[in-house]
Design brief:
globular; Elongation Factor Tu (Ef-tu), domain 3
Length: about 625
């Protein structure tokens, strides 16, 4: 019934979709197995993509040839560039999406991807022999063979849904859990653990009073996520902001004795940076209110997502608390919020390629690795799909450095440090934020992906054109003279110091209170000189000019740190023989098996003296 595939991807969430697309686009005959074809790329939680650091990840996925950025652009109902008041390293794109349209656009793209087949069934086991994975066993009893398997099971592995004192098996509300895989992997020697996440109630938007809320509109200009030309919306929908109050908190507290979290019925650790509403009022008892974002689920639905009100309290407590929130006095609830507990596998059991250390040709991506968020899942899926293809073709795997991408930071964090709670990306996790901006993801990554055969020729040509345009703009700014008479009146109007002699436009742009667009409007000759260049290239050139000093400093730091990254540790290195290492260091180094001294230095519990000892024993 089934041919033998090159790669089988298990699960069609954000990680699975990117993995399947990448493997197929690289030329591998790929099968995507999902329990429900109607929920491909479903936005299980909030209908949004991007945000702080997450927006950078989506742009990196797009630059590498993934689909998430394109689908986000084509299904968005609102766009905002966050942190515009800060430096470019902190700018982060975020989109509110039409949940149903997002799924449909993803499915359409996947169905139009060559080399990709689909099958609807549950995978209940892996085919493993002599330490190598060669396929999957489905719930209907089919053995489907492949050269490599990518597991992207999300929250479905032995998932349990909690609402108050009620609990039942499920990977999402109204969807059954996946069983069998965890038990088999544990029997093969893998370590597993439990995590939890949650989601808020959904309500009927027709029952809300928006006059009691603050309107949050999108940006006037929709920048989008993809570096390609995409079909972005002509109009946008507003989101709204409201706040809880002391009465809401008092009502929520009445359900604490029936809370699965406080009663100890949930073993898994929840996300620290996205706590439930009951966790927030318990941990931050001194706060009189908490912010809630009222987010539409799409263009043609009245369903509303109450962001910030994630909860697993009994339904009647959720309902009563909501109806005491400003604007929600007459709210009708479509479905209650709930918590979900699921299995994950500590990611220190993985190689940089996301292949498991114990079983060859078996890759993990997404929440199975302990991460949370669509964006974190998508980038892991992309990398697992790429590297599964590279492995079976006997090519070098793709490993992104911490200085090359947020994706590199995420994977290095996971496999070097592991995680005891759902891992979420933040800009603060990256040492080289000035280099890893959302605006230059294409310049950083597209050529690399194109050489591998993933990023299209169209993408690569666009990057080359952009590079040339940016350099020409920089040359213009460097050479164009500006007379005091041309600029001083404007300086006076903005409270900036006048110039007494002629200066180049580049030097004027270095002033913190001078924006490139203002300079173009003030200087007609600059406007003429840059008239043939697109806005994106002009902005990129301006950022490079303004932040040259900081960028160069980070590049120097990268160069210094790269010395440790280049010192590779052989797989056969026996740490147990180094008696000068402490017991903790020997145990962790033996378990994680770092690829380089740089990775070894980032393992929790490994100190600089341990690294020095390793250097001595490696003859350095």
């Amino acid at each position: 019934m089934f041919p033998e595939y090159d790669i089988i991807v298990v699960g069609a969430g954000h990680a699975g979709c990117e993995a399947a697309a990448a493997a197929a686009n690289l030329g591998s005959k790929t099968l995507l197995v999902t329990m429900n074809m109607q929920t491909i790329a479903q936005m299980s939680c909030n209908p949004a993509m991007g945000g702080i650091a997450k927006g950078q990840i989506v742009r990196e996925v797009d630059a590498l040839g993934g689909y998430s950025g394109i689908v986000t652009d084509e299904s968005m109902i609102q766009f905002r560039m966050l942190n515009r008041s800060k430096g470019p390293a902190m700018w982060s794109p975020r989109a509110q999406n039409d949940r149903m349209l997002f799924h449909l656009k993803w499915r359409e793209r996947l169905e139009n991807t060559a080399n990709l087949d689909f099958y609807q069934d549950m995978v209940k086991g892996l085919l493993v022999k002599d330490g190598r994975c060669y396929g999957v066993l489905t719930g209907l009893g089919h053995e489907i063979k492949a050269k490599a398997v990518v597991l992207t099971n999300g929250t479905f592995l032995n998932g349990i849904v909690h609402i108050g004192e009620k609990q039942f098996g499920g990977g999402r509300m109204a969807e059954k859990a996946a069983t069998g895989i965890t038990e088999q992997l544990v029997s093969l020697g893998f370590e597993s653990d439990r995590l939890k996440t949650g989601t808020p109630p959904r309500v009927d938007g027709r029952s809300l009073d928006y006059s009691k809320m603050e309107e949050q509109k999108g940006d006037d200009e929709i920048k989008g996520f993809s570096f390609l030309e995409t079909n972005k919306p002509k109009e946008q929908r507003s989101c709204w902001i409201t706040y809880t109050n002391q009465k809401v908190h008092d009502i929520l507290k009445t359900g604490f004795d029936r809370s699965p979290m406080f009663a100890g019925r949930i073993d898994g650790v929840g996300p620290r940076y996205c706590p439930s509403i009951e966790d927030k009022i318990n941990r931050f008892a001194e706060r009189e209110r908490h912010q809630l974002f009222v987010e539409p689920e799409g263009w043609n639905t009245v369903e509303i997502y109450v962001n910030g009100f994630s909860t697993s309290l009994p339904e009647e407590v959720q309902y009563e608390a909501l109806r005491n929130t400003p604007g929600f006095e007459n709210a009708r609830m479509f479905r209650p919020g709930y918590a979900i507990e699921y299995d994950f596998f500590p990611p220190t059991q993985l190689k940089y390629s996301l292949e498991t250390k114990l079983i060859d040709n078996l890759f993990f991506a997404g929440q199975i690795n302990g991460t949370t968020g669509y964006e974190e899942a998508a980038c892991q899926g992309l990398m697992a799909g790429i590297n599964a293809h590279q492995k079976i073709k006997e090519n070098d795997v793709l490993v992104l450095k911490r200085s090359e991408a947020y994706i590199g930071v995420l994977i290095d964090d996971l496999i070097s440090k592991g995680t005891q709670e759902p891992y979420r990306m933040f800009t603060s996790r990256a040492e080289f934020r000035t280099l890893l901006r959302q605006d230059n993801a294409d310049l950083r990554l597209t050529e690399l992906s194109h050489r591998m055969g993933l990023a299209s020729a169209e993408r690569n040509e666009a990057v080359q054109s952009k590079k040339e345009a940016v350099q020409k703009i920089r040359n213009t700014l460097k050479e164009l003279p500006v007379e005091p008479s041309e600029i001083n009146n404007w300086f006076e109007s903005i409270g900036s110091s006048p110039i007494s002699e002629k200066q180049k436009a580049q030097k004027i742009l270095l002033r913190p209170d001078v924006d490139i667009n203002d300079l173009i409007n003030v200087l007609p000759k600059l406007k003429v000189a840059l008239s043939s260049f697109d806005e994106e290239s002009i902005e990129q050139a301006s950022i490079q000019v303004k932040y040259d000093v900081y960028i160069e400093k980070e590049k120097e730091l990268v160069q210094r740190m790269s010395q440790l990254e280049e010192l590779e540790i052989p797989d056969s290195f026996d740490y147990k023989k180094i008696v000068s290492l402490g017991n903790e260091a020997r145990e962790k180094l033996t378990r994680i098996k770092p690829r380089t001294l740089g990775q070894a230095s980032r393992i929790s519990g490994i100190n600089p003296s341990d690294v020095q000892i390793l250097m001595v024993f490696m003859g350095r």
